[in-house]
């Protein structure tokens, strides 16, 4: 699957939140200064070509919806990042993550609990 540009990803975030939306709803969800309709139309077209976005025709308008879930996109991004930056080593990533994100003891314990549960359910 292809990657999204930053501008496309920003629009995708809006669409994930709204689940389905017309062009005007998407534009209104942007912070000021909002992009031009033509800009959003171009982004949507590119995202359709990449198979991230679909639409249903409602009269003369198109109602857009995400064809990729936020979870599966995020999981692909994370796996790609672990491959690129951490030699495909989850433990290198975990070591970096726990050192660099200043997690509290509480958060680290929660993480350990998540990992223990995952091991139990394997």
Radius of gyration of CA atoms, rounded to a whole number: 19 Å
Judging from the principal axes of the Cα atoms, what is the shape? elongated
The CATH first-level class of the largest domain comes to Mainly Alpha
**First CA to last CA: what distance?**
28 Å
The strands making up the biggest β-sheet line up spatially as 1-3-2
**Mean pLDDT metric:** 92
Short account of what is shown:
This protein has 6 helices and 3 strands. By secondary structure, it is mainly alpha-helical. A hairpin with a 2-residue loop joins strand 2 and strand 3 (61-66).
Explain what you see.
The structure is a single chain. The chain is mainly alpha-helical and 122 residues long. It has two domains: 6-66, Arc Repressor Mutant, subunit A (Orthogonal Bundle), CATH 1.10.10.10; 86-122, no CATH class. It has six helices and three strands, in the order H-E-H-H-E-E-H-H-H. The protein has helices at residues 6-18, 23-29, 37-49, 70-85, 90-100, 105-120; strands spanning 21-22, 53-58, 61-66. The chain has a three-stranded antiparallel beta sheet. Strand 2 (53-58) and strand 3 (61-66) form a beta hairpin. The protein is elongated and about 55 Å long. It starts with 5 loop residues before the first helix and ends with a helix.
Defining traits:
Arc Repressor Mutant, subunit A; 2 domains; 3-stranded antiparallel sheet; 3 strands
Describe the protein's topology.
Elements: H1 6-18, E1 21-22, H2 23-29, H3 37-49, E2 53-58, E3 61-66, H4 70-85, H5 90-100, H6 105-120
Antiparallel strand pairs: 1-3, 2-3
């Amino acid at each position: 699957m292809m990657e999204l540009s930053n501008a496309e990803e920003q629009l995708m975030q809006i669409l994930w939140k709204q689940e389905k939306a017309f062009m005007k709803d998407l534009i209104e969800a942007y912070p000021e200064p909002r992009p031009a309709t033509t800009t959003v139309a171009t982004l949507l077209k590119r995202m359709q070509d990449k198979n991230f976005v679909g639409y249903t025709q409602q009269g003369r308008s198109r109602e857009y919806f995400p064809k990729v879930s936020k979870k599966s996109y995020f999981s692909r991004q994370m796996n790609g990042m672990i491959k690129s930056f951490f030699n495909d080593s989850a433990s290198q990533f975990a070591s970096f993550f726990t050192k660099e994100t200043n997690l509290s003891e509480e958060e680290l314990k929660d993480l350990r609990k998540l990992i223990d549960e995952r091991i139990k359910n394997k």
